[in-house]
Amino acid sequence: MKLFLVFVLFLIPGGVGAQFSLQYLDGAGSGFFAGEAVTPVGGNEGTTLGEQRRLVLEEAVRIWEEYLELAGPVRIDARFSALGCSTVANAVVGSLLRDFPEAPEPATWYVAALVNHLAGEDRFPNQGEILITVNRNVAGSAACPFGPRFYYGLDSETPPGQVNLLAVLLHEIAHGLGFTSFVDGNGEPLEGYLDAFSRFIFDEQANASWEALGAAERTTAAFRPALTWQGRGTRLAAPHVLSRGPEVIKVESGELVVLAPPAAIGIPWPEDPLQAPWIVVDDGVDPASDACSAPFLNAAAIAGKVALIDRGTCPFVEKALRAQEAGAVAVIIANNVPDEPLLVGGETNPVTIPVLGVTQAQGAALRALAAGSELVFTSGEGGSLARRPFLNTPATFEASSSLSHWAPEMTPDLLMEPSISPSADAVPDLCLTVLREMGWTVRNIPFPHLDYEMWLQDNPLSPPEPGADADGDGVSNFEEYARGTAADERRKRPGLSFADGAVVFRLNHQAGDVAWEVEESSDLQQWGPLLGGEREEVSEVAEEPLLREWAQPVGELEGRRFFRLQIRGDGLD
C-alpha cells in the first residue's frame, strides 16, 4: 500500500494582522487524521479520533490567542510519532537567532516564534516555528502497553489514569514560544551565548544571576535545587497564583538550599523565617539517628535546635514527639532510600513543632554543613525568600527538562511542570508573565503582576513621578495606577464613594504591589478600623478592575462618619 504524507494548513486568526497556523504532518488515516469512530467527550464534538485530536490542538491555539497579541506569524507543525514510553509529547523550535535588529538583548538567543513577533514579520518563511510531536504509542499499544492514555475533552475534567491532551499541547506550545533553556548538562550556554529564558535564571545559593556565574559555578548549579526565576512580574504574581508551600530550607550563609514538600504532621511553618542551629539526634541504639529509642543521649544539646533525624522502623509521629520532648524547635526527617521523596504523615498529629521530610541526598547535604550552622526556614509560595519561583533541577541533568520547567513541588500544579498533573488546569498561569518578560505582548493576564514602574512602561506618555497628574484631573499617577484608571483620561474618580448604602472603591486587579486600608472616624481626629473592628488589606483578584464593598450599609451607622482610603506601595525591593 502506498502512503501519502498529508499537509493540511489551518489558519487561526491572530492579533495585529498576524496569525497562528497549524500544519499537520501525519499520513492519511493516522495521527491527527486517524479514522476510528469515537464518541464526543467533554465538549469535543469530533466523531473520529483524528478529528478530536485536531480539535484539541485548535483549542490549545485558541487559548494562547486569548493571551498573546501576535505581531508576526507563528506556524505550528504537528504530528503523532513514536516516542519513549514515559514521554507524552515534545516540542522543537524551528530556529534560534541572535543579534537581529529588533532583539531586546544583544548576544542572546531567541526562538523563531519570538523573533517573528519582535520583528513584526516572518523571518523564517520556509519552515515552521514550532514542531510538536505527540506520542503515538498510547496505552494498549504493542510498544507501550502502559503508555499514556489521552483524554480528548476540552473541559479539564480529566478522568483518573488519563492525560489531558489539551494541557499537554498548551505546555508544548509554551516551550516553542520560548519557555525553554538551552543550557547544557555542564551548565554552559549554547555556543557561549545565553538564551532569552536563561537570562532570567537566578541562583539562590550563589545569590547571583546565571549570567554572572562562572563556568565552574554553573556546572554545579545546574544540579542543585537553588535555581529560580527572577523576572519582576513573575515575582509579583507568584503569591497570587501559588499557595503556601513547598517549604524552603536555606542555610543563612547561602551554602545550601533545599526544597521539600510540607509534612502532614506538626504545625505549619511560620510565615516569618524560623532560624536555629541544627543537630543530629543520638538515641544510643544503632542506627542512633533514627530517633526510635528514648531518651536521646544528646537530649540536652537538642533544646532550641532543629533535630535532624533519619527515617527508620518507627512511626514519624514518634520520632517528632521525642525530638519535641527534648526541646527541638523543628524536625527534619531524611529518607533512608535513595532518589525517593519523603512524604511525612501519621494517623494522629499530636506534634506541636514544624516537621519537614527531605530526600536522602538532601539529608546528607545538611549533615555535610559545619556543625552548629544555622538554618533559616521559610514557608513561601513555591518560591524563595524573594518570591522567585523555583525551577526544575533534578539531581541528574535531563535535556529539555532541567531548567526548562517549574519545580514539581509547586502548589497548585502549574502548566509548565515536568509532567502534566491531572489537577493542572488548561491555563497558562505563571507562563504568561514569563513570556511577557521575555518580549511577548501578553494581554488579559488574570492575576496581579504589575508594579508602578512596569505600569509606566504601558503608559509612556505619563511623567514618571508618582505624584504627577498627567491628565490634570486631580488624581496622581500612582492613584491612577492603583485604581486601574487611565492616566490620560480626564475623569476624576473619588477614592471612596457610596452606592446602595455601602462604602465602595475601585481596585486595579493587575497591581501586585499595592495594599489598601480603609478607616473610619467621627471627628476626623481619631481613626479606627472600618466597620466591625476589622482593618482589611485587599488582595482579591478579578477579571476586571472591580468595586469593593462592605456588607454593612452605611445607613445603619449612628451619627456622622468619615471614611478614608489609604493606598501604599509594597514592592519587592
UniProtKB/TrEMBL annotation:
Keywords: Glycoprotein, Signal
Record domain PA: where: 288-366
SUPFAM superfamilies hit by this protein: PA domain (SSF52025)
Transmembrane segments: none
Alphabetical list of CDD domains matching this protein: PA_subtilisin_1
Pfam families found in the cross-reference section: PA
Signal peptide: none
PANTHER family: PROTEASE-ASSOCIATED DOMAIN-CONTAINING PROTEIN (PTHR22702), PROTEASE-ASSOCIATED DOMAIN-CONTAINING PROTEIN 1 (PTHR22702:SF1)
Protein name: PA domain-containing protein
Species of origin: Roseibacillus ishigakijimensis
